[in-house]
Design a protein that fits this description.
By secondary structure, this protein is an alpha+beta fold. 46% of the residues lie in helices and 19% in strands. It has five helices and three strands, in the order H-E-E-E-H-H-H-H. Strands 1-2-3 form a three-stranded antiparallel sheet, covered by helices on one side. Helix 1 crosses helix 2. It binds FE2/S2 (inorganic) cluster. FE2/S2 (inorganic) cluster binds next to helix 2 and helix 5.
Length: 129
């Protein structure tokens, strides 16, 4: 593993960004990796369909927690519809290293939770006329 990216991942793991809970989130989702039990919870605050604030909590391996931390940094100011469509490649671009197939679930846990939060919220929106 490239040393810079290893350090980058460890930095996010040790100093997670946007860690904690929002007092009154508009959307919350939580899930775990069934293989290991590692967890992520994500709270979103929305303003007119745009992510105005985000927090996450969780416990687990460095890749799962670091990739969730990186995700929270990349979604503030984005429309919820766009968050719901984020591809796995967005996580891989954030992490910046090749992820082995066995660690792919770790890397994607935060995205899975984030997308379930976004999709659940969008599903509750009234259809536009
Ligand atoms: Fe559990 Fe990575 S080992 S999410």
């Amino acid at each position: 593993m490239d040393d810079f990216y290893k350090e980058y991942i460890l930095d996010h793991y040790r100093n997670p960004r946007n860690f904690g809970r929002l007092e009154s989130p508009d959307v919350t989702a939580q899930d775990n990796n069934p293989l290991c039990g590692d967890e992520i919870r994500i709270d979103l605050a929305l303003n007119d369909g745009v992510v105005s604030d985000v927090r996450f909590t969780g416990k687990g391996c460095a890749i799962s927690q670091a990739s969730a931390s990186m995700l929270t940094e990349s979604i503030k100011g984005k429309r919820l519809e766009d968050v719901a469509k984020l591809p796995p490649q967005a996580v891989l671009d954030n992490v910046g290293i090749g992820i082995s197939p066995t660690r792919m679930r770790c890397a994607m846990l935060g995205l899975k939770v984030l997308k379930s939060a976004a999709l659940g919220e969008i599903a509750g929106w009234p259809d536009e006329e």
